[in-house]
Design goal:
By secondary structure, the chain is α/β, with parallel strands linked by helices. It folds into two domains: 106 residues, Roll (Urease, subunit C, domain 1); 289 residues, Metal-dependent hydrolases (TIM Barrel), CATH 3.20.20.140. The protein contains 13 helices and 18 strands. The strands form three sheets. Strands 1, 2, 3, 4, 5, 15, 16, 17 and 18 form a nine-stranded mixed β-sheet that branches. A five-stranded parallel β-sheet has the order 10-11-12-13-14. It has a four-stranded parallel β-sheet with strand order 6-7-8-9, sandwiched between helices. A hairpin with a 2-residue loop joins strand 2 and strand 3. The longest helix is centred in the last third of the chain and has 19 residues. The protein is globular. It binds zinc ion (ZN). The site of zinc ion has 6 residues, from loops. Keywords: Hydrolase. GO terms for molecular function: hydrolase activity, acting on carbon-nitrogen (but not peptide) bonds. This is Putative chlorohydrolase/aminohydrolase.
């Protein structure tokens, strides 16, 4: 594998914030040396980063790449009036229409977009009930071909009956048996309100067998809470916990309708709560009590791209609008949460510009009219930096974007092919 010597960058670590000047040497997917004026060695490719800002790569802690081909698609004839209708009229129509080609190009287009935004790890929650078996293999191939780091799972659900549920379970098992350096697995489940006790028990069997966690939507809308109380006489989180599904690798997306008391015991179990501000606003499901999410909180996009520069801005502005006392640093803590999750799931430091950490980093061409220091990095991230400043992206020691160009030679063709796949997908949905 190629060795790189990255010279003269200003290194900006997000949380805790740190700004420093140093050179980095990268080999075998990791940062192997850091220091002032590192000498060039035989075989090094030297990259001059003078005047540029280098950050650890962004991690999107919850998304659905299957929605990548939904951009601009026609809406339903009758607009949905609540969250269950949004699922039924939009997303459950779209995911059932996905075939192998649409799954592949959703993943490819979503990954390319993520790379261009400086996202270096995508934690995905996949559903394609018309094409379950083999879907994660298709996605895994897209991640590995484009050099993206990912955590994949299949959303197990009862909404299509037992046979589809069983295929979903097996799809998760397949990925957990075929993890690679770039692609890891979790046990996916849609949401408690579409899962019977028997199905949750099957998910728990996988969680135990592979010593991993579950990735599930938690109390995104009141419908999840109401179903749990009416049919099972338990809160959503207590029902999941009663099957042993909550542990320190479990990712609970949204957590909008969770009481403060319940958040206190969820924090004690050490599972992760993933805030998705743009999606919550878009679906009008409510505002999550993020000031009670605690230390193990992260930021996701829930399918609205994997652009963490946009997501963190929306998180911040929504918090101000709701009068939640979250400054830029608190928002960065959530962003860093994704890097901490990735570090746990990949078993190596991700999100640090230090020796031994994954060489997942982004180089920004960010001309700032004001000084940048550790005390105001958050202010720059919220009010200054955007994805448009992303100049180069390295994942696991390989440049996937350099000087604003994808390094994969077929990237332009992939976008054209994705457009054709999208047109066919929309046709099947109509
Ligand atoms: Zn989601």
């Amino acid at each position: 594998m190629q060795t790189y010597l990255l010279k003269h960058a200003t290194l900006a670590t997000l949380y805790p914030a740190k700004i420093e000047q140093a050179d980095l040497r990268v080999a075998e997917g990791k940062i192997i040396e850091k220091g002032a004026e590192l000498p060039r060695r035989d075989g090094d490719i030297e990259v001059d980063c003078s005047g540029k800002l280098m950050l650890p790569g962004m991690v999107c802690a919850h998304t659905h790449l299957y929605s990548a081909l939904a951009r601009g698609m026609p809406g339903p004839k009758e607009p949905p009036i609540n969250f269950p209708q949004i699922l039924e009229k939009v997303w459950w129509k779209l995911d059932r229409a996905l075939d192998e080609e649409a799954i592949y190009y959703s993943a490819v287009a979503g990954i390319l977009d993520a790379i261009a935004c400086g996202t270096t790890t995508i934690i995905d929650h996949h559903a394609s009930p018309g094409c379950i078996s083999g879907s994660l293999k298709i996605m895994k191939e897209a991640f590995e071909m484009l050099g993206m780091r990912g955590v994949l799972c299949y959303e197990v659900t009862d909404r299509g009956g037992e046979a589809e549920r069983d295929q979903g379970i097996e799809e998760n098992r397949w990925l957990l048996e075929h993890q690679s350096e770039l692609v890891k697995g979790l046990v996916g489940a849609h949401a408690a309100f579409t899962l019977s006790d028997e199905s949750l028990k099957m998910c728990a069997g996988l969680v135990r067998a592979y010593q991993t966690g579950i990735h599930i939507h938690l109390a995104e809308d009141v419908c999840d809470v109401k179903t749990s109380l009416d049919q099972y006489d338990k809160s959503v989180a207590s029902r999941l916990a009663s099957f042993g599904l909550l542990n320190d690798k479990s990712l609970l997306a949204h957590g909008v309708h969770v009481s403060r008391e319940e958040l206190a015991w969820i924090r004690n179990i050490w599972c992760w709560l993933i805030h998705n501000p743009r999606s919550n606003m878009n679906n009008a499901v409510g505002y999550a009590p993020i000031d009670e999410f605690g230390d193990r909180a992260a930021l996701g996009t829930d399918g609205i791209s994997s652009n963490m520069f946009e997501e963190i801005k929306c998180m911040y502005f929504k918090a101000q609008d709701e009068k939640v006392p979250f400054g830029p640093e608190e928002c960065i803590r959530f962003l860093n949460g994704g890097q901490r999750i990735a570090s746990t799931l990949f078993g190596l430091p991700i999100g640090a510009l230090e020796v031994g950490a994954a060489a997942d980093l982004i180089v920004l061409d960010y001309p700032s009219p004001t000084p940048i220091h550790a005390g105001n990095l958050g202010g720059h991230l919220i009010f200054g930096m955007t994805h448009a400043h992303v100049d180069s992206v390295m994942i696991a020691g390989k440049f996937v974007l350099q000087n604003r160009h994808f390094t994969h030679p077929d990237a332009t063709a992939f976008y054209q092919q994705a457009q054709q796949a999208a047109a066919k997908l929309w046709q099947r949905m109509s």
